[in-house]
């Protein structure tokens, strides 16, 4: 199977490049159009109003597809490595893939349903994308440790686990604060109060 996969390493690099471009381009358009403040806007705010909403939606949907392809390649790679080493059950690898694909679906939902147009669907998509993403990278970190030292170095495993821990720690306040605030518009004036549940 690996002999059928030469050159696929460009897919994760393309995913990172394309996703970065999606955020940067939609941010630039939103700032130049005066739709968001230039200093650290909420990611979804940069994809809420036209014309940046079209660019954001299109590019993030492509990112979701590239993410799914990357996860499938990782799944195939682990399956091939597992044939000789038997370091993980195939069902665990499949569960990890399915969770990752759920995250990609959530990402597509976030891109398709803008923050202010359909906020509940957008928020559910974000929850699925980020929650599944954290779970996916945690499972992949565990699988990396199981395949050590034949297929991974301890250093790579530690880096992956550190990213998983940081992602989990960041996910908790995201849930807490998102559940406290109801966003109904992007533009705020000084002295205006935020609606809390």
Characteristics of this structure?
mainly alpha; elongated; 5 helices; 197 residues; single chain
Provide the fold topology.
Blueprint: H1 10-32, H2 52-85, H3 90-112, H4 119-146, H5 154-180
Helix pairs in contact: 1-2, 2-3, 3-4, 4-5
Verbal overview:
α1 runs antiparallel to α2, α2 packs antiparallel against α3 (90-112) and α3 (90-112) packs antiparallel against α4 (119-146). The chain contains five helices and no strands. It is elongated. By secondary structure, the chain is mainly α. The protein has helices at residues 10-32, 52-85, 90-112, 119-146, 154-180.
Report low-confidence residues grouped into runs of 5 or more: none
Number of helices: 5
Q: Kindly report the average pLDDT value.
A: 89
Radius of gyration, taken over Cα atoms and rounded to an integer in Å: 19 Å
Helix content: 55-70%
Largest sheet properties: none
Total strands: 0
Order of helices and strands: HHHHH
The global form is: elongated
Global structural class: mainly alpha
How far apart are the termini? 53 Å
Strand content range: under 5%
Short description:
The chain is mainly alpha-helical. The protein contains five helices and no strands.
């Amino acid at each position: 199977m690996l002999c059928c996969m030469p050159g696929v390493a460009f897919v994760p690099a393309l995913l990172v490049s394309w996703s970065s471009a999606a955020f940067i381009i939609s941010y630039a358009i939103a700032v130049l159009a005066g739709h968001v403040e230039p200093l650290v806007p909420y990611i979804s705010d940069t994809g809420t109003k036209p014309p940046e909403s079209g660019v954001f939606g299109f590019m993030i949907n492509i990112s979701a597809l590239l993410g799914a392809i990357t996860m499938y390649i990782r799944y195939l790679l682990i399956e091939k490595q597992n044939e000789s080493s038997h370091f993980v059950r195939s069902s665990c690898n499949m569960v990890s893939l399915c969770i990752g694909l759920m995250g990609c679906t959530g990402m597509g939902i976030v891109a398709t349903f803008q923050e202010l147009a359909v906020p509940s669907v957008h928020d559910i998509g974000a929850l699925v994308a980020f929650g599944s993403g954290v779970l996916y990278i945690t499972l992949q970190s565990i699988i990396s440790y199981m395949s050590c030292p034949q297929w991974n170095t301890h250093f790579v495993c530690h880096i992956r686990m550190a990213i998983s821990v940081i992602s989990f720690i960041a996910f908790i306040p995201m849930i807490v604060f998102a559940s406290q605030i109801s966003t109904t518009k992007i533009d705020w004036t000084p002295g205006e109060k935020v609606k809390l549940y």
